[in-house]
Amino acid sequence: MSRKGKVLVAMSGGIDSTVTALMLNDEGYEVVGITMKTWDYSTSGSKKKETGCCNLDSFNDARAAAVEHGFPHFVLDLRDEFGDFVIDNFVDEYMAGRTPNPCVLCNTHIKWEALLKRADGLGCDFIATGHYANIRQVGLPTGQAGGRYVVSKGLDETKDQSYVLWGVRQECLARTILPLGKYRKTQIRQMALDYGYPELAKKSESYEICFVPDNDYRNFLKHKVTGLEERVADGNFVWIDGTVVGKHKGYPFYTIGQRKGLGIALGKPVFVIEIIPETNTVVLGDEADLDKKQMWVYKLNLQKYESIPEGMEAVTKIRYKDKGTLSRIYHEDDMLRVDFYNKAKGVAPGQSAVFYEGDDVIGGGIIQRAATSSNEKRQITITADE
């Protein structure tokens, strides 16, 4: 038995998870590798060749690294759980006029939960992934047991993945190791070379949604929802003042902030400002109309604190690559209301809002709605219905 304990490492076959496993193996952990099959490309409707984390080549690459370095490797089939939760939510959210973030749901409800369950079955003390983030304990002096676990930003801000980990629960964080948070991507590439994996060091990274390999979510929705195009065709494009300015192909095929591919010419750049599924309406406006002063966030998970003090100041990120906007947070019913100091652009219901104090994740949730004033949404909806 290893002095440091036994750790179950999620191995996708890519550079980050492979180096994570080899690094922990060298550090003296008893490593067990596991590759999770979450998706079957044949059911996606895509014509693109399988890529990313759920194809046979990735499985073989992960297993080969484990065999070469003398630790066991397993494949865990999660297709049923993934489809029932992540895929169904993805489709439901677009049909509700929102823009989902499936990676957050997968991390929170599938990967971490499945890893911990398997870790318990294999007698593992810890789980580990190749995310660029850190986990630390707060609330008690150093060396004392207890306190809360919090995700913090990784050293490499260009690769930091703390945003997608806001939903991981305390009991999961307490048993999670994230070795890459203290390194830059360039250092990890060099490690892959040093370990004798030059093909990994040169391997390009995919930023597509794993179950939409051609990055065409519209085609995916058409494949999953029978008769979708006919059901949502010929809805109205409505200007923000309520004027009907044209017809669109169906509200699920548009996202907040979209400018290109609208299929309408109004003599100037226009943007999707709001989506109203009840009336199959897509609201258009100028870029300035994307600026929001407030938003409401629900389905919350807190990490750093058990509760957020009323009016707490925080930097709020509304998308993965967002730099964040200084804001104050208030409790309102079962949600949090976020008041931005400076207006935030392109707040999209369905996306994740993550609150930061310095490098630490305070917590996060799902954006329910946003407004420049408390009655903005109702004004637009009433006008569109008329």
How many separate structural domains? 3
Spatial strand order of the main sheet: 12-15-14-13-16-17
Q: Give the H and E element order.
A: EHEHEHHEEEHEHHHHEEEEEEEEEEH
Number of strands: 17
The CATH architecture term of the largest domain is 3-Layer(aba) Sandwich
Query: Structural class, judged by helices and strands?
Result: alpha/beta
Distance between the termini: 71 Å
SSE inventory with pairings:
Layout: E1 6-10, H1 15-26, E2 30-37, H2 56-68, E3 73-77, H3 79-95, H4 102-121, E4 126-128, E5 133-138, E6 148-153, H5 170-173, E7 176-177, H6 185-194, H7 198-202, H8 217-224, H9 228-232, E8 235-239, E9 244-248, E10 271-276, E11 281-285, E12 291-302, E13 312-317, E14 325-332, E15 335-345, E16 352-357, E17 360-371, H10 376-385
Parallel strand pairs: 1-2, 1-4, 2-3, 4-7, 8-11
Antiparallel strand pairs: 5-6, 8-9, 10-11, 12-15, 12-17, 13-14, 13-16, 14-15, 16-17
Helix pairs in contact: 1-6, 3-4
